[in-house]
Every structure is written in structure tokens, then in C-alpha cells.
Amino acid sequence: QVQFVESGGGLVTPGGSLRLSCAASGRRLGLYVVGWYRQAPGLERELVGTITSVGSTYYVDSVKGRFTISRDNVKNVVYLQMNSLKPEDTAVYFCNVPSWGFSSWGQGTQVIVSS
């Protein structure tokens, strides 16, 4: 069974930046659309953005222009660069591959944006 491992979260002040990483043990990510998701306290998990196998990206409006998804298929890693962070970006961030059916989720990585 695939295991997703997210890392790179932390505490950052508003306006700061973080880069999150997503790795998947047991399967190669390179051929698939990979999505980043987040879940804020008391809210449902939501999509942040996606990246296709050839690097095309999609972002939800709330992060457009601030977040960038990229991938390194050699390292089997997908990144989420987050700039100009806002308190409302506080959440646990997850990655997943939609075509794999969301049967497995990683622990996520906590991002806290606070002064």
C-alpha cells in the first residue's frame, strides 16, 4: 500500500514562506496528477492545487499567485512552495494522487501562520 509522507511544515509569521515536500513510498508519482490538500481546524479537507505529470498546474483562487506546485520526478517528490502566507493558510497539509482513489492518506504536515 502506498504511503504518503509530507514534510516541511512549521510556524511562520504572516508574509513568510515555507516549502512543503511530498514523497510516496512504494509507487512512482511521475506519471500521475498529484494534488495538495489542506484541512483547517473544524473544517473539511480542501483542495489547494494540482500538478500533472508534465508540470501543468491548477490552483484554487485563495492561493493563486502565492503558492507554486512543482515536481522532481527523478527524486519522486512533489513540492508546494508557499509565499506570502496568511493566518487563514493555517492547516494540516496533505498530498495525494486522485486517480489512486484516496484510499490512503499520510499524516500531513502542520502549517501555522501566526504573529
Q: How would you characterize this protein structure?
A:
A hairpin with a 6-residue loop joins strand 4 and strand 5. With 115 residues, the protein is mainly β. The chain is globular. It is built from no helices and ten strands. The strands form two sheets. The protein has a six-stranded mixed sheet, with no helix packed on it. It has strands at 3-7, 10-12, 18-25, 34-39, 46-51, 57-59, 67-72, 77-82, 91-96, 109-113. 0% of the residues lie in helices and 47% in strands.
Question: Looking across the biggest beta sheet, what order are the strands in?
Answer: 2-10-9-4-5-6
Number of strands: 10
Q: Overall 3D geometry? A: globular
| Total count of helical runs of at least 4 residues | 0
How does the major sheet shape up? 6 strands, mixed
- The poorly predicted ranges are none
Radius of gyration: 13 Å
Strand share of the residues?
A: over 45%
Order of helices and strands: EEEEEEEEEE
The share of residues in helices is under 10%
By secondary-structure content and strand pairing, the structural class works out as mainly beta
The pLDDT mean sits at: 96
- Distance from N terminus to C terminus (CA atoms, Å) equals 39 Å
